[in-house]
């Protein structure tokens, strides 16, 4: 059974997720830890719970989701996996920070590129890779059928959807993928988004003002 710990980091209030199972193997999803205090918070939780980080993965590579990539690579000595369609987005992180007036961005480089389908494994657990562009060109969602959960990045929020006015975004593509990919998941699937509280597919199909199921 996958367990999840949420950390809300950086000026954009981004959700960083730490997931693990009974084996104590863990994956850091979208490490947004920006400063030393946030880095320490993540590291302390991992150490206090005797977890072994085996992978770092990005759903997409907008700056608020990758602030902590390099710190986690260096601290835990494991590979960073990013979507293959997000290489240029990751490379533009420093420029994006300058545009927002945010200092101290530490650049990172992917160790492995994730295809638009397939699986991510850790411990006894499997996450299915779903390709859901629109918010960003290579955006992926990681879905566990066994545990009824999806790590959704910035695709679908509680009562909202990801913005599409950033480079590589496309509003209609996002709407189509929410309807044709996300809403095909079981209604009981919990969606853990990149910002804000978790929701379920069923709730969003019934009440999301942007895309009804």
TrEMBL record:
Designated name of the protein: MBL fold metallo-hydrolase
| Organism, as annotated | Flammeovirga agarivorans
Q: Where is the Metallo-beta-lactamase domain?
A: 13-195
**In this entry, which stretches build a coiled coil?**
none
**Could you confirm whether the keyword Cytoplasm appears in this record?**
no
What SMART domains does the entry give? Lactamase_B (SM00849)
A Pfam family cross-referenced in the UniProt record is: Lactamase_B
| Domain of life the protein comes from | Bacteria
């Amino acid at each position: 059974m996958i367990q999840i710990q949420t950390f809300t980091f950086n000026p954009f209030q981004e959700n960083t997720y730490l997931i693990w199972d009974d084996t104590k193997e863990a994956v850091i999803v979208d490490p947004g830890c920006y400063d030393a205090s946030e880095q320490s918070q993540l590291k302390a939780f991992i150490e206090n719970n005797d977890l072994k980080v085996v992978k770092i993965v990005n759903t997409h590579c907008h700056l608020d989701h990758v602030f902590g990539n390099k710190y986690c690579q260096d601290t835990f000595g494991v590979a960073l996996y990013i979507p293959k369609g997000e290489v240029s987005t990751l490379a533009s992180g420093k420029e994006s920070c300058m545009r927002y007036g945010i200092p101290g961005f530490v650049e990172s480089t992917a160790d492995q590129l994730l295809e638009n389908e397939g699986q991510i494994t850790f411990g006894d657990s499997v996450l299915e890779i779903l390709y859901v562009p629109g918010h960003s060109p290579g955006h992926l969602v990681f879905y566990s059928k066994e545990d009824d959960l999806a790590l959704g990045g910035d695709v679908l929020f509680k009562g909202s959807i990801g913005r599409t006015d950033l480079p590589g975004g496309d509003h209609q593509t996002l709407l189509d993928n929410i309807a044709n990919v996300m809403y095909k998941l079981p209604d009981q699937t919990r969606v853990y988004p990149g910002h804000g509280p978790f929701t379920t597919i069923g709730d969003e199909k019934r009440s999301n003002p942007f895309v009804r199921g």
